[in-house]
Amino acid sequence: xxxxxxxxHKQQFDRLLKAxxxxxxxxxxxxxxxxxxxxxxxxxxxxxxxxFLGLEEFDExxxxxxxxxxxxxxxxxxxxxxxxxKMIVVPRKKKFGEHTNDHQLExxxxxxKQKQAIxxxxxxxxxxxxxxxxxxKMKETLHAKGIIKLIDAFVSSVGE
Length: 160
Known about the structure:
This protein is an alpha/beta fold. The protein has one domain (about 1-160): Rossmann fold, CATH 3.40.50. It contains six helices and six strands. It has helices at about 15-25, 55-65, 75-80, 105-115, 125-135, 140-160, and strands spanning about 1-5, 35, 50, 65-70, 85-90, 120. The chain has a six-stranded parallel β-sheet with strand order 3-2-1-4-5-6, sandwiched between helices. Strand 1, helix 1 and strand 2 form a beta-alpha-beta unit. Helix 3 (about 75-80) packs antiparallel against helix 6 and helix 4 (about 105-115) runs antiparallel to helix 6. The longest helix has 17 residues, at about 140-160.
C-alpha cells in the first residue's frame, strides 16, 4: 500500500492528490493507495482517503505502507525515517496556495542532501520518483539518526 499524507495545515494540497489520481488512471500506480487529505478540496476518484487520522491510525498506516508520499513536514519525515520507510517528499509551495511561506523547500533541500528520501520539486516528477523508490533499500543507520537530528535543529532554528 502507498500511504500519502499532506499534513494538517489549513491550506489545501490538491496538486499532489490530483497527480496521484492521474498516475492511478494511467496504471503507473497499481497498488492500493490511502491518503490523509487534510484540508484539501480535491476529492480523490481512484483511491481512498480521510481528512485526518488519529495518531494510532496514522502510525498503523505508515507501518503498513511500502511507500510513503508526504509533504515536507518534519513530523512525517522523522517518523518515516525512524520506521525505515521508503519516502517521497513533495514540499508544499506558497505560490500554489499550499502554505503561507516556502519553509518546506528548505527542509526538503536538507533531506535531499542527506539522501534518505526522494525529494521532488514538481508533481510532474512523481512518476519517475515512484519508479526510483522501488530501488531504494532502507535500513536504520547512524546516518538516518543524524538526519532526524538535522530536522530537529532546522525546526528549532525556524521557530526563532
